[in-house]
Amino acid sequence: MKSALNDMNNSFFQAAQLILQAKYLVAFTGAGISVESGIPPFRGPGGLWTKVDPRHFEIGYFEQNPEQSWRLIKQLFYESFKNARPNPAHLALATLEKGQRLKSIITQNIDYLHQQAGSRQVIEYHGSYRYLRCLNCNSHFTASEHFLNNLPPHCLECAGLLKPDFVFFGEAIPEAVINQSIAEAMKADVMLIIGSTGEVFPASQIPEIAYRYGSKFIEINIEPSNYTQSLNPIFLKGPAGQVLQQLMKVIANEEFKKV
Ligand code: NAD
User: Which residue, 5, 19, 150, 176, has most beta carbons within 10 Å?
Assistant: First the structure.
């Protein structure tokens, strides 16, 4: 028991050292970072896919059944995200950016919680729930009540069908987003992977690219992921908010020792 505790303390110390020595620290976040904000992940126990049929998020199905899909999407995302607030994990990353330690966040999340926490350099790999996009003319609109009270919402320019501006199954990731994410992964010498299974392709390739370009890794998750074996990270087990709060204390302590 004592030795397990020592190992954990040692991992926090090593992770803090890695962050303090990093020249280009990048964070890669998945659904797990927002669980303590009350937003469930897709996979795993309590995940969305245990309750909801994922085909509502296939672009072909959505186009055929827009009203049905939109009712579910409104309930799952627009109604539940409204009350979600950034948790200590989002806030810790924003603090690291302000302190000029963290260069960017590549997030698979669509919930805008990183920006709400104060992070500015955020790449939203799968888009955002805050905007709507016309499937006909590609116009964008803020997802306001005006649209969400009239389902399915239609474009003000051409009356085409509007969809949330996050990536559905069967849709491509915008090229600019892919290129920006790859560029950040290539520059990273340390990458923090937080709350991601590593099962969603092609997002899952971002840490792999960082690995090929020589990055080291710190992973925070309640359980091992695909990355825990393949990228040899310093693994900090536990809920992201709790772990990052603890890690920030160790970082502050180590910085203090240097003064
Ligand atoms: P995932 O749903 O596949 O996996 C979630 C991961 O988080 C798992 O590895 C799980 O062990 C871990 N986890 C759960 N609770 C945690 C906690 N408290 N602290 C740390 N880790 C925790 O998530 P994914 O790999 O990110 O991929 C699913 C896709 O679904 C993503 O691309 C994302 O776009 C989307 N998604 C987004 C949100 C959101 O915006 N908040 C929510 C659900 C799904």
Answer: 19
